[in-house]
Specification:
Blueprint: H1 4-74
Length: 85
Amino acid sequence: MNETYPAIAKSQASSSSTEKEAFAYIVGNQEKMAKQFEEQAQVQREQFDIIRVQQEYIDTLMQMLAQLHKKKKKGPKTKKKKKER
């Protein structure tokens, strides 16, 4: 039985080392993931800003078109006289 204890101790030591490496890997990946989430959130905010600006531009264009359409419906303010030949 004395030979069994060193084998168990060696197995536990190697297991402990592996656990530490695994924990360090997980912690490192959590930091990487957190950074990636941060970067993704920043990209999404920038995309949202771009979409917001595009929507404002579209709204402005629609207002301009509505004004032009309204003016066209009213017709010219002064009618030109036809020249007789």
